[in-house]
Write a structure and sequence with these properties.
Elements (H helix, E strand, L loop, with lengths): L7 E5 L4 H11 L3 E6 L5 H6 L4 H9 L5 E5 L5 H11 L4 E4 L5 H4 L4 H7 L4 E6 L14 H8 L19 H25 L4 E5 H6 L3 H10 L15 E5 L5 E5 L3 H10 L3 H4 L5 H6 L1 H13 L3 H10 L4 E3 L3 H6 L1 H5 L3 E5 L5 E6 L23 H8 L4 H9 L4
Parallel strand pairs: 1-2, 1-4, 2-3, 4-5, 5-6
Antiparallel strand pairs: 7-8, 8-9, 10-11
C-alpha cells in the first residue's frame, strides 16, 4: 500500500517545476495521467538532439510512475477528452505560460464548475496576482528577480544562478505540499477542491529568511561571496592532495577544538565567543587552512567527525553516485522503460514513508504509451473510438 494510491492526478505540466511536483505524487502512489501532444511535447523538443539513452536518463526520474497519454489540446475533441478526464480525477496540475489554460477553456472556473472536488494547482513564475503575474519565466529569471542570484558567486565576478534548477525544484515541492494540504481540507473540512497558486517567485523568496533579515536590519543588501555569518571557521579548505573539505564551526567549543588540533591553544585560551571570532575570522581561517593542508581529505574528515565537528568532503557527482550512502538510501536506481530496456541513474523517492513506502516502478515510457489503458479503461472508450481519435490526430 502506498500513501496516495487512491488519488488520481491529471498532469498538464511541461518543463520541470510542474513535472517535478507530479512525480513526487506518483512516487507515493498517486495515479498520474501525464498529457503530451501526439509525437512528443516539451521534453522531446528540448532534449531531442541528445542520444536517446541520455534523454531517458534526464527525464527518467521526472516521468517515473506516470501514465503517459497523447492528446492534442489544440483540437476541440482533445479538449473534450481532457474534460472527461477531469470528471475522473482528484487533482489537475498545470504550469503553462500565463493565459494558456484560459484559452484552452480549462480555467479554474471551468474545471471547478465541472468537478467541484478537484484540487486545481497552477505553477507559474510570479503567481496569479501581482504586477508580474503575466510575465513568463524560467528558473534563472526567477532567481534574478528574487535576489537569490545577487548573493551567489564571488564578489569580484558577476552574480550567477544556483545550479540544480533551484526555482523549478522548489516550486515542484511546494506545489506537492499545497496539493496535499488542499486534499486534506477537501476531505476533512470543506468537501470541495480549491485552487493552489504556486509562484516560483514566492518559493525562492522563502529560502532567504536569514539573508533578507540581515539586509533589512543593516539596510545594506547582502552581496555574493559573503561568508556564512554565524560560524567561524567555515568554508572550503584544501587538503594535502589538493581536494576540498567543507567545515562549519558554530560553537566556541568547535572552534577551540580546531585551534588545539592546529597547535594554537593560545587562541583557544582567549575564550572568544562568536562576535570575537568573526572579528578575527582571517586569523582563525588561516590557522585552520594550514592545519588541513597537512592532511589528506580522508584524514581530515575522520579527525573532525571524531571530534564532533561538522565536516564533509566536497564530492563531485560521480563520487556521490558511487558513495555507499547513496546506495543505502536507494537514491540512484535503474528502471524499466516499458519497452524491454533499462533507464539508468533515476533519482530515488523523497521523502521515505516507512509505513506506506513510495516506490518507482517504471521510468519514461514514451509518447502515448498508456493511451489504451486510460482512454479504454478509465474513460470506457471502445477500440473503434480510440482508433478514430488516433486517425483524426486527436491522440
Amino acid at each position: 500500500m502506498k500513501a496516495l494510491e487512491n488519488i488520481k492526478v491529471l498532469d498538464l505540466t511541461v518543463a520541470l517545476a510542474g513535472p517535478f511536483c507530479t512525480q513526487m505524487l506518483a512516487a507515493q502512489g498517486a495515479e498520474v495521467i501525464n498529457v503530451d501532444p501526439p509525437g512528443g511535447g516539451y521534453a522531446a523538443k528540448v532534449f531531442g538532439s541528445l542520444p536517446p539513452e541520455l534523454q531517458k536518463m534526464i527525464n527518467g526520474s521526472v516521468f517515473a510512475n506516470k501514465k503517459g497519454v497523447s492528446i492534442n489540446l489544440k483540437t476541440e475533441e482533445g479538449r473534450k477528452l481532457v474534460l472527461e478526464l477531469i470528471d475522473k480525477v482528484d487533482v489537475v496540475v498545470s504550469n503553462f505560460s500565463p493565459g494558456t489554460m484560459d484559452r484552452l477553456g480549462l480555467s479554474y472556473e471551468v474545471v471547478h464548475k465541472r468537478n467541484p472536488k478537484v484540487v486545481y494547482c497552477v505553477v507559474s513564475g510570479f503567481g496569479q496576482s501581482g504586477p508580474l503575474r503575466d510575465r513568463p519565466a524560467y528558473d534563472p529569471i526567477v532567481q534574478a528577480m528574487t535576489g537569490i542570484m545577487s548573493i551567489n558567486g564571488f564578489p569580484d565576478r558577476d552574480p550567477i544562478p544556483v545550479v540544480g534548477a533551484l526555482a523549478d525544484v522548489a516550486s515542484g515541492m511546494y506545489a506537492a505540499y499545497g496539493i496535499l494540504a488542499a486534499l486534506h481540507a477537501r476531505d476533512t473540512l470543506t468537501g470541495e477542491g480549491q485552487m493552489v497558486d504556486v509562484a516560483m517567485y514566492d518559493c525562492c523568496m522563502s529560502f532567504l529568511q536569514n539573508d533578507m533579515a540581515t539586509s533589512l536590519f543593516k539596510q545594506k543588501a547582502k552581496g555574493p561571496g559573503n561568508p556564512y555569518e554565524f560560524a567561524v571557521p567555515v568554508g572550503n579548505f584544501k587538503t594535502r592532495e589538493g581536494k576540498s573539505v567543507y567545515l562549519l564551526c558554530q560553537t566556541d567549543k568547535q572552534c577551540n577544538t580546531i585551534m588545539e588540533l592546529a597547535g594554537r591553544s593560545d587562541i583557544a585560551e582567549k575564550g572568544w565567543h562568536l562576535k570575537e571570532r568573526m572579528k578575527n575570522r582571517e586569523e582563525i581561517d588561516a590557522v585552520t587552512a594550514a592545519w588541513i593542508k597537512e592532511h589528506t581529505r580522508e584524514e581530515v574528515e575522520q579527525i573532525l567527525l571524531e571530534k564532533g565537528i561538522p565536516a564533509a568532503p566536497v564530492l563531485d557527482l560521480l563520487e556521490v553516485a558511487k558513495h555507499p550512502h547513496t546506495a543505502a538510501r536507494e537514491m540512484l536506481n535503474d528502471l524499466p522503460d516499458g519497452h524491454g530496456n533499462t533507464i539508468r541513474g533515476n533519482l530515488g523517492v523523497v521523502p521515505k514513508l516507512l509505513g506506506t513506502p513510495g516506490k518507482q516502478e517504471w521510468g519514461m515510457t514514451g509518447n502515448g504509451f498508456f493511451n489504451e489503458e486510460i482512454f479504454g479503461g478509465l474513460l470506457g472508450k471502445s477500440q473503434a473510438e480510440i482508433q478514430q481519435l488516433k486517425e483524426a490526430g486527436v491522440i
